[in-house]
Amino acid sequence: xxxxxxxxxxxxxxxxxxxxxxxxxxxxxxxxxxxxxxxxxxxxxxxxxxxxxxxxxxxxxxxxxxxxxxxxxxxxxxxxxxxxxxxxxxxxxxxxxxxxxxxxxxxxxxxxxxxxxxxxxxxxxxxxxxxxxxxxxxxxxxxxxxxxxxxxxxxxxxxxxxxxxxxxxxxxxxxxxxxxxxxxxxxxxxxxxx
Length: 194
Prior knowledge:
- By secondary structure, this protein is α+β, with helices and mostly antiparallel strands.
- It contains 4 helices and 9 strands.
- The protein has helices spanning 12-25, 55-66, 99-113, 141-147, and strands at 2-9, 41-50, 72-84, 87-95, 127-132, 156-159, 161-170, 173-183, 192-193.
- The strands form 2 sheets. A 5-stranded antiparallel β-sheet has the order 2-1-7-8-9, with helices on one face. It has a 4-stranded antiparallel β-sheet with strand order 5-4-3-6.
- β7 and β8 (173-183) form a beta hairpin.
- The protein is globular and about 45 Å long.
- The mean pLDDT is 93.
């Protein structure tokens, strides 16, 4: 068994703009252990424990689904916090609602359920995790809440790379390794995998 998830990867240039806005709003931002830029992605489906013998079939099904999609045109929306036990636990940047993206998430959910993965009960909220907040980050809480009030300039971007990732948990945090990459082309062109 390995831990896996399926994610949409985002262009580095636009992620850097978000990081810059965030850094400008948080005092001593360099004293916080932020998620590195190479781990910032939009999770479409977290599978968790996965039987490796299913992986070729899941890849094949994903390939079929993705043939019906064009490159995604997306826009960042706002910063937000997930709260647990009255404490902020995750700082994220959200994306504006996108019907095509919602449809893809639904299709992926349906397909992987055939392999015994539980269907998602919660509504899909497109977001990228920027920080998993630890208790030692308490002195920054005020800054985190302030950040959620910041108005983001319109940042539009295109995304066409979907990756099936393996996630390994280590003491230092999780390490992500791509199992397979899928590249969406405009309709009329062929989708590519590798």
